[in-house]
Input
Amino acid sequence: MPRITRRDFLNGVALTVASGLTPAAQVAADPARYPPALTGMRGQHEGSFEVAHAVGREGWRYPIESLAIEESYDLVVVGGGISGLAAAWFYRRAAGDDARILVLDNHDDFGGHAKRNDFTINGRTLIGYGGSQSLQSPKTLYSPVARGLLRDLGVTLGAFQTAFDRSFYPSLGLSRGVFLARETFGRDVLVAGDALTVPQGEGAQINARPLGEFVAELPITDSSKAQLLALYDAGRDALRGKSPAEKKAFLKKTSYRDYLMKTCGCSEEVANCFQGRPLGFFGLGCDAVPAADLAEFGYPGFAGLGLTAEHAAERREPYIYHFPDGNAAIARLLVRALIPNAAPGHTMDDVVLAPFDYANLDRIEQNVRVRLNSTCVDVREQDVKVRIGYVRDGTTRRVETKHAVLACFHMMIPHIMPSLPAAQREALASNVKTPLVYTNVLVRDWRPWIELKVSSISAPMSFHNTVSLDFPVSMGGYQHARDPGEPMLLHLAHVPGAPGLDARTQFRIGQIKIYQMTFADFEERIRDELDRMLGPGGFVSARDIAAITVNRWPHGYGYAANSLFDPDDYDETVVKRARQTVGRVAIANSDAGGDAYVHLAIDQAERAVRELLQQ
Ligand SMILES: Cc1cc2nc3c(=O)[nH]c(=O)nc-3n(C[C@H](O)[C@H](O)[C@H](O)COP(=O)(O)OP(=O)(O)OC[C@H]3O[C@@H](n4cnc5c(N)ncnc54)[C@H](O)[C@@H]3O)c2cc1C
Output
């Protein structure tokens, strides 16, 4: 096997033909470049955000008044994520197949956060997800509208029961592991058999070790170990003397970190064992997540409070509703339903390997068109029409439409539609999105994981808060990696942030942090942490990494109300005010649902279209 030196590695792929990769797909000038197969820096990639940032500059507008109107539509959708594509779908269903619909998106691929990452090595394709990961508890959380759309797209939830092989990693003796890094804990230690928190879903097979045995191996002092174990003691009430209602109110207004350190008397070391654990779900560490929320997620410290255990609705079902490309499959199903010549096939299975023809997304003869690399810069109602300006390839253009759905980020809307009422603009602007980075690393084999007996690693004080083997999902002829000697995708998550500050400030600081990082900066952190976590199992990044795709999402999860920083009625007041339909312009996106979920993106698309058509 050829040795890949640091010098050979550029923008995500090893520049060696012997590696079996297809770097030709990288060349931007190549008309055959297939967006899902691009490696290097993806997500909110270069070329997608510059125009939007110019619009965001205070008081500056794109001059569009004098431009000719080039096209006329029934509906223009701003934002080609799941919400925008679903809005196009609901509109066509209500208005009929003759409805002329244009979807604009600023990226070079459709799907918004729901992005697919393909890799080819030794003639084999591995499929990964670059953003929106799984359908979260669809039987518990999904509305009839969201379930109905999935059904109409051919998605049967039962199929995941067999497609997702829940026993695969446990059957190899693998478990969840915890990595405690030397910068915080004095030395690098990976401990298999994580017993600190319980993963989602009934029957999750995890090979957790007995708590005492697990804690004994952590690199913390004996007194910290005793404090950690005491958190699980059901006979200990850290809030003795308070009524149940007072306890609940206290936990809503106290961060989990403060609860551990100030209420339960734990050391900083103990708090650090948990600090980064909620990052993946909340985009915030323990310093900014309410203790009440983590109680519902099964974190320790609450068993003795005498409160009825409430489990977050998100945790009631197994976490198995995952396509090989994550929720990009939903975006692909929507695009194929809207534009049948975009890809062959009709089922949830055949969409997995279906090649999409991007040249067919925006053809003049189609009633539904998806136009990529197009940033909307201006929305205004005039007479009985909505006029929309957008920038594509450096040229500003104008179209008109009967109706518009803004399915883009809420904080962008005040800039493109300043005519909205001030209170609505303020509500929209308060949706500060969570920055996060999902990285896929293609490795030539995964023997080190077998050696170390882990399938996923939680690293509560590291740059990457989780590092995992890809989900074991086989579907539509695609087989997940089964042989540890074969290539595998590793999934790494990074959430920046600035512990100690309020949620929005952390998000704003984090957005800038990851915008300022180059691919080389990320690559350095990836290699360093993988070598340190997996090196004891035989991993050598210079030899074992074949490709990297960094999906950078400075504007990631939509804002969800946080009881530490927002009033109880936040959803009923601010979120509702933000999504008001104004004239012929309706507002969707998961932002309009007050949380970052596919089903909310769909629900809000349906509501937006309904409100327009009821007029
Ligand atoms: C890393 C990550 C992981 C996630 N995991 C999950 C998960 O497991 N389960 C889940 O349910 N949800 C998850 N989500 C939440 C995700 O936001 C939703 O699932 C869903 O994809 C949101 O769809 P949307 O259409 O509302 O928004 P988006 O996907 O953000 O789509 C909006 C689109 O509008 C574009 N846009 C913005 N402004 C303009 C403009 N002016 N002109 C043109 N286009 C514009 C944006 O760039 C984007 O492409 C995840 C999100 C992220 C970032």
